[in-house]
Amino acid sequence: MTTPAAPEAPLARLSLNTATTKAWTLEEALDGAVRGGLGAVGLWRDRVHEVGLDKAARLVEASGLRVSSLCRGGFLTADDDAGIAAALADNRAAIVEAATLGARELVLVVGGLPASSAPGGPALPYPAGDTTGAPDADPARDVVAARARVADRIADLAPHAAEHGVRLVLEPLHPVFAADRAVISTLGQALDLAAPFPAETVGVVVDTYHVWWDPDLQRQIARAGAEGRLASYQVSDWTLPLAADALLSRGHVGDGHIDFATLTRWVAAAGYTGDVEVEIFHQGIWDTPGDQTVATLAERYTRHVLPHLG
Amino acid sequence: MTTPAAPEAPLARLSLNTATTKAWTLEEALDGAVRGGLGAVGLWRDRVHEVGLDKAARLVEASGLRVSSLCRGGFLTADDDAGIAAALADNRAAIVEAATLGARELVLVVGGLPASSAPGGPALPYPAGDTTGAPDADPARDVVAARARVADRIADLAPHAAEHGVRLVLEPLHPVFAADRAVISTLGQALDLAAPFPAETVGVVVDTYHVWWDPDLQRQIARAGAEGRLASYQVSDWTLPLAADALLSRGHVGDGHIDFATLTRWVAAAGYTGDVEVEIFHQGIWDTPGDQTVATLAERYTRHVLPHLG
Questions:
Q1: What are the Xylose isomerase-like TIM barrel domain coordinates in residue numbering (chains A, B) (predicted)?
Q2: Chain A nearest CA to B258, separation (Å)
Q3: b/e A158-179 (16+ beta carbons within 10 angstroms → b)
Q4: Residues 6+ apart with CB under 8 A from A58
């Protein structure tokens, strides 16, 4: 069998996120990454749970690949006791899974407004009879309070993450997802939330799809590097028109509007030396044979990202 | 005939943007706003051009309504001489139109990436044969350069606006539109672009649909007030799922996820005493009889906005 990319190999820092080759099992994704000459994989928990944690850990170890991240924990915005307890239990389990898999970085998608976190969740019209004016505090719409709960949950989870040598990696999501998936919308906001905690316990991820538009991005990437919190660099492209489900609207690097040369130089200038993970949710890519997708990732990475990694 | 709302009337600060009642001509929109008891209208240039500028000005004056804004100028990101000249000519014309209509505030949607400003513009794959790596400066994707051109065009237009007593009002658009409609994505960025110019010449608009998600919003609204640049407050709601065309994905105030109580209090605390304009692009609302839409605007404004205007 082939072996993973050596440190000096051209694709040594390229990581296949299992969400990109959705049709592949964990074992198929590991084999495909090795076959493609990649150095790492980013794992989603569903692929891990399918085979069981211990077997997944053995498969990963046998592959010789690094695990650049485990996706994902989070969904921390619940405002009821049961929801908070369930979120903490799930994230504590994710921390143990990351440690067992040898994944240093656990990516957290922190969740949207409490009553609307279901993807495509319904709008929440006020009762037709209500003419009393909007309540001063409307929990279903109070994004400020939802963000405060995220800060509280990170404080709850940080000691557990530190015990297991896992870093909680806060992911700012594109503001198109602010209502239903993540109330963290900018890298600066993620760094502010991380600030109270040690850099080895709470970090941030730069996902080009989510942050490319941010006028403050260069400064915040430099800040993330200076603070030692730049935990992951994920690449995929912003394509138009949006897919019916915006979540599935990403494209291969180079197919959209993102300036990967500039963003990659900013990330490199911030001192990032880790893996470059490709995570694309896109039906057309999911319908493509995995080896072909991996070959496209490698070709686009080599053309648009690698020359600028320094 | 009825007369417009007196200053103390409950709807005196409510403004109907003509884009909300798209099926109405200018005259129908003016009559409908007066019939509904509103104090102002926001005008789109297409409605004005249909009847001609001079007649439009007479109709507006006869209605007794204030013109809370003229929409819109902008699209300033062209990087070729012909495109720049065309943008300057169109915006100079818009400034004259605003002055003639008695509109103090000319809203500018500044445009997206140069080669992709067409709504739903195509993605821009690199030539399949190109294996030379992404160019260091890719004009079609260089959002930093596009923003710099917007600053240059504002400097070109500001003297003309000042001569005519019109204010250029920079509109931050939701980042979902950063590639194809506006490279200004946050209120803070708009205020930074406005900073070199007098507050009476370059201002900003707070449109709840575009900025509600911004973690820095309260601070930037206060800053806009302190700098005397808070030129317009526009309200519509963020509803999910997104419409196929994200531009048409807005809803009536109260039908979505935005906390109007809190945002309106922030705007009032910043010293804003102007009109509250309702601008909604939504096929279902366009298919509704105009008087019914105006009645809904009034009811939602009275319930969710007015109580918090102070």
A1: 49-289
A2: 6
A3: bebbbebebbbbbbbbbbbbbb
A4: none
| CB atoms closer than 10 angstroms to residue B138 | 20
Q: How far apart are CA A176 and CA B135, in angstroms?
A: 29
User: pLDDT tens digit string along A20-79?
Assistant: 999 999 999 999 999 999 999 999 999 999 999 999 999 999 999 999 999 999 999 999
- The 3-state DSSP composition of chain A as helix, strand, coil percent (nearest 5) reads 45, 15, 40
Helix (H, G, I), strand (E, B) or coil at B237: strand
Say whether residue A127 is in contact with chain B using an 8 A CB cutoff: no
Asked if the Cβ–Cβ distance from A241 to B245 is below 8 Å, we say: yes
Of B141, B176, B307, the CB nearest to A176: B176
Q: Which parts of chain A have pLDDT scores under 50?
A: 1, 116-135
**Tell me, what DSSP letter sits at residue B32?**
H
Q: What DSSP line would sit under A249-300, residue for residue?
A: -EE-TTSSS--HHHHHHHHHHTT--S-EEE----HHHHTS-HHHHHHHHHHH
Rounded to two decimals, what is the model's pTM? Answer: 0.93
CA distance A39 to A18: 14
A123: closest chain B residue by CA: B256
Write out the two tokens for A252.
Answer: 């291969």
Whole-angstrom distance, CA of residue A226 vs CA of residue A191? 11
Residue with tokens 């130089």: A265
| Dist CA B220 CA B172 (whole Å) | 12
Q: Coil, strand or helix: which one is A43?
A: strand
Q: Which CATH superfamily is domain A14-120+134-271+296-308 in?
A: Divalent-metal-dependent TIM barrel enzymes (3.20.20.150)
Backbone angles phi, psi at A93, to 5 degrees: -65, -40
Parse chain A into domains and list their residue ranges.
14-120+134-271+296-308
> Predicted ipTM?
0.92
Q: Residue B19 in contact with residue B277, Cβ under 8 Å?
A: no
Question: Which residue is listed with tokens 């915005």?
Answer: A77
